[in-house]
Specification:
heterodimer; A: about 120 residues; mainly beta; B: mainly beta; 6-stranded mixed sheet; 5-stranded antiparallel sheet; about 0% helix
C-alpha cells in the first residue's frame, strides 16, 4: 500500500494525558499537512511542512500541540495535556509540490477521544 | 475565518438524475479548487480539481464549474449513482495551502 498511512487509527485517552500520532506520507511527496475534523465540519488546517521545514501553523494550533517532520519523511503530531475539546479526527495529507498546484492525498485519519 | 463555504449541509437526489453541489469562497487569492469525497471512517478522497484559469473541467460523470467573478464553484454529477452517496468537501488553495468547506452530504436514492 503506497498511500498515506496514519497510526493509530483510534486513540482513547484520559484528560490531561499526552498523545502522539504518526503520519507516513506517500514516499516521494515533499509536502505534508495536518488537519483536524470535528463532527459536521470540514477539515480544519493545523499546519504543514515542506520537506522538514514547518512553514505555517494555524491559530488553532495551541502551545499544547507540536508537530515535527525530522527527516522530511514521516511526521508526528503531539498533543500535551489533552482536553475534551481535542476530541476529533486528525487527518494527515501529502502532496508533491513542484511549482504548480496539485492535489493532496489523505490518510484514513486518527480518531482521538478524550474522556 | 471561514474562507470556503458550503451552505447546503445535505442533498438528496434520485438515481440517474443530476446532483449539483455548490461552494462559495471569499479569498480572491485562491487559484486552485478541488472537490473531495469522503465515506465514513475513511479520509477524504480527491475527486476533481480546476485551476483559476479555467471555468470548467470534466472527468467522466463529474464536472466542476468555476465562476471567479461570483467566487463560486459547483460540482455536477450526472447521472448520479447510489455509490456516489458520501460527504463532498470543496477546497480552495493558494500556493498549495488548502482550506475546506464544511461539506455537503449527498444521498442518491435508488
Amino acid at each position: 500500500d503506497t498511500g498515506v498511512s496514519q497510526n493509530p487509527r483510534h486513540k482513547i485517552t484520559k484528560r490531561g494525558q499526552n498523545v502522539t500520532f504518526r503520519c507516513d506520507p506517500i514516499s516521494e511527496h515533499n509536502r505534508l499537512y495536518w488537519y483536524r475534523q470535528t463532527l459536521g465540519q470540514g477539515p480544519e488546517f493545523l499546519t504543514y511542512f515542506q520537506n522538514e521545514a514547518q512553514l505555517e501553523k494555524s491559530r488553532l494550533l495551541s502551545d499544547r500541540f507540536s508537530a515535527e517532520r525530522p527527516k522530511g519523511s514521516f511526521s508526528t503530531l503531539e498533543i500535551q495535556r489533552t482536553e475534551q475539546g481535542d476530541s476529533a479526527m486528525y487527518l494527515c495529507a501529502s502532496s508533491l509540490v513542484t511549482g504548480g498546484n496539485t492535489e493532496a492525498f489523505f490518510g484514513q485519519g486518527t480518531r482521538l477521544t478524550v474522556v | 475565518d471561514q474562507q470556503v463555504k458550503q451552505n447546503s449541509p445535505s442533498l438528496s437526489v434520485q438515481e440517474g438524475r443530476i446532483s449539483i453541489l455548490n461552494c462559495d469562497y471569499t479569498n480572491s487569492m485562491f487559484d486552485y479548487f478541488l472537490w473531495y469525497k469522503k465515506y465514513p471512517a475513511e479520509g477524504p478522497t480527491f475527486l476533481i480539481s480546476i485551476s483559476s484559469i479555467k471555468d470548467k473541467n470534466e472527468d467522466g460523470r463529474f464536472t466542476v464549474f468555476l465562476n471567479k467573478s461570483a467566487k463560486h464553484l459547483s460540482l455536477h454529477i450526472v447521472p448520479s449513482q447510489p455509490g456516489d452517496s458520501a460527504v463532498y468537501f470543496c477546497a480552495a488553495s493558494v500556493i498549495n495551502d488548502m482550506r475546506f468547506g464544511a461539506g455537503t452530504r449527498l444521498t442518491v436514492k435508488p
